[in-house]
Request: fold
Amino acid sequence: MKRSVGAWASLAAIGLAAGAALAPPGPLAIEHFYARGLYPALQANLTAVSNRVPLPLFDLTLIAAAMLLIGGWLFWFRRARRERSLRPIGRGLAVTVTGLAVGYLWFVTAWGFNYARTPLEERLPYDASRITPLAVLELAEHAVREANRTHAAAHAAGFPSIHDTPLTLVEALHQVERELGRPRPTRVAVPKTSWLSPFFRASGVSGMLAPFYLETLLNPDLTGPERPSVLAHEWAHLSGYAPESDASFVGYLAALRAGPAAEYSAWLDLVSEAANQLQPVTQRLVLQKLEAGPRRDQDAIRERLKSLVQPVERVAWSTYDQMLKSQGVDEGVRSYSRVIQLLIGTDALKTVLSQAPGQ
Reply:
């Protein structure tokens, strides 16, 4: 009887995982029942739990899973050899597939269904006709001017440390969330550094949302001017904006309202993001207008990125590209650049600038 119950439970987990992967709920159902209902409640509770633990629970879970997997397969192989039967191997495969199914169900329930939400372009007044090469150039030039303007004040104010939770950034995120219709404010995650930090360095990962316990993990090598923008981006993921471009959009809007350090961090990041979409000659002409201070900060970022290991970077980003596509983000990692289209095609950036002092 116990085996029968276990077998049915295993089949149920595998079937549910296959259904969630191959036929997820539609965007309207996800938006109404998950993004505005289940997810905010789950997020508040899971992040509250993980915030109480100084160590990254994501790392501990990976280590525990790896140990169980290795130990389990050593046991099944030894038993198969002792019994001279393939039945233990079959049981091992069944347990492994069931474990993967349970892990996937945990992922999509805790956070992954956010990938199926209605795109921001459909939730905001959005005019694609605004997106022209000239508009991209104007945004890049504006970002350069603002980076030059805000550099001194940002450095005078000081940048948060890698484990800080800046109150101004928390409040700005909550303001953006209210404007975008989130039913309750995000319980922000205390930034942690991961035991995967060597991998972050080698692959060029600045930070990540750890999905199982909804933690925020940051690369400890981030320079001061990078930290507010990266943290705002990861907190936007925590808010339920899964596509990278959507998280960047929400993160920029929050950082630009969060005081001198965060504002400068957002503009400095936008300089690179917008300039990368220009033709090489135009890009050089725009970047030449950066003053000495922002140039030094960009040089420090480039120095940090010298720790990249090209094979690791290629494998990491190729894997992430495939993961994004499997979750319905057709552009994969190329979706990062879509944030420029969102900023130009909506009035969100104009609204933020109109509210900023001195604008």
The longest helix spans residues 57-83. The beta strands are 207-210, 215-218. The chain has 16 helices and two strands. The chain has two domains: 2-116, 120-355.
